[in-house]
C-alpha cells in the first residue's frame, strides 16, 4: 500500500513539474484595461495585447521558467506624434511597442528623446575610408561569408579572414549554396562547363573538391538540399543531379529519357521539365513564423496574427538570413543585423554591395 502511495505521489509531482515547468501553454488574462494572450511553445514566447483601440504583439526566444510568464505591468510613453506601451515581465527583457501616424511601428525607427533610453546600440556613422570594413560585432557562433571574386571574407566574432579559392576573378557567384556550415560552389576556374564542386567550411576554412564525373553547364542552379543530398539542375542539358555530400557520389535523377521528379511534402513526385526550366523550383525552403512585405518600407507580420502589420524598417531591404526574430540584411553598401530589442547594427561595409548583393553573402549560425 505504501509503495502505491509513494508511486502515486511521485507520479503527481512529475505531472505537475511537466505541466508547469516544461510543457507548452496558452493563457489569456486581463491587466487593467488590457486583454492579454501569452503563448509558449518550443522556447518561444508570443505576447498579444489589446486595449480595445489598439493591438500590439511581440515574441521572445528563451527557455520558459517554472511559472507561467505573464506581463506584470504596462507603462506608457507618448507625446503628440506617437504613443507606446512598455510591458514588464519578470525575467524577460522587453521593449516599447509603438504606434505612429496610426501605424504599428518599431520603436527603433522613431526619432524621439523619450525613446533614447530604450535604444541599446548606436549605429556606426563613421564614413568608410576602405573598400571593406568589418565592425567586429558578431558573436562567436555567428559566421558571415562575403564573396570577393576569388573567394570569401569570412567574418566571425571579433575577427575576419580572406579565404582565396580560385585563381581567376569571377563577378557572378550565383552557383553557390550553403548547406549547414559549408558553402558548395561550381569550380570557377573551369571554362564554359564545370566538372567539380568546391566546398568551403565556414567554421574552420577547410577546402575540398568534389569530382562530379559529369560536365555541367554554368547555366545551372542549385535546387536545394534534402538532408545531406544537394540537387543541381543543368538548364542547358535539362538534367537533374543528386550529390551526396557525405560520400561524394553523384547520380542523375531526372532527364528527358527518365522524366522528372520534384521533392514535395516529404517525397519525390513526378513533374514536368518546365517546373525546373521555367518555374525554377526549390526544395525545402525555410519555413518562417513571419511574413515580410515592402511598401514604402518593410512590414512584418507574425503568424499568430496575420492581420497585425508592424513597420520595422523605413527602407526596402534585402534579407539574407532569418534566425528566430533576427534579420541579417543588406541595404546600400552596408550589411546589418536587426533585432526587435536592439534595433539595427552595422556588421560590415563593402564599397560595391549595392550593385553586387545577389548570391554574394551567406550567414551560418552554429
Tell me briefly what this model is.
With 366 residues, this protein is mainly beta.
The tally of helices reads 2
How are strands sequenced across the largest beta sheet? 5-6-7-8-25-24-23
Q: Output the CATH class name of the domain at 135-277.
A: Mainly Beta
Head-to-tail CA distance between termini: 52 Å
Query: Which CATH architecture of the domain at 135-277 would you pick?
Result: 6 Propeller
Overall outline = globular
- The CATH homology group name of the domain at 135-277: Kelch-type beta propeller
Topology-level CATH name of the domain at 135-277: Neuraminidase
Helix fraction by DSSP (H/I, runs of at least 4): under 10%
Describe the largest sheet: 7 strands, mixed
Strand content: over 45%
**Number of β-strand runs:** 30
Mean pLDDT: 91
Q: What structural class do helix, strand and pairing data support?
A: mainly beta
Q: Could you explain how this protein is built, in words?
A:
It is a single chain. The longest helix is centred in the first third of the chain and has 21 residues, at 2-22. The protein is built from two helices and 30 strands. Strand 7 (97-100) and strand 8 (103-106) form a beta hairpin. The protein has a domain at 135-277: 6 Propeller (Neuraminidase), CATH 2.120.10.80. The chain is globular, with a radius of gyration of 25 Å. With 366 residues, it is mostly beta strands. It has a seven-stranded mixed beta sheet, with no helix packed on it. It has a five-stranded antiparallel beta sheet with strand order 9-29-28-27-26, with no helix packed on it. The chain has helices spanning 2-22, 274-277; strands spanning 25-31, 34-40, 44-50, 55-61, 73-78, 82-88, 97-100, 103-106, 132-134, 142-147, 151-156, 159-164, 176-179, 182-186, 193-201, 207-217, 220-226, 229-234, 239-244, 250-254, 260-264, 267-271, 290-294, 298-302, 309-313, 318-323, 326-331, 334-339, 343-350, 361-365.
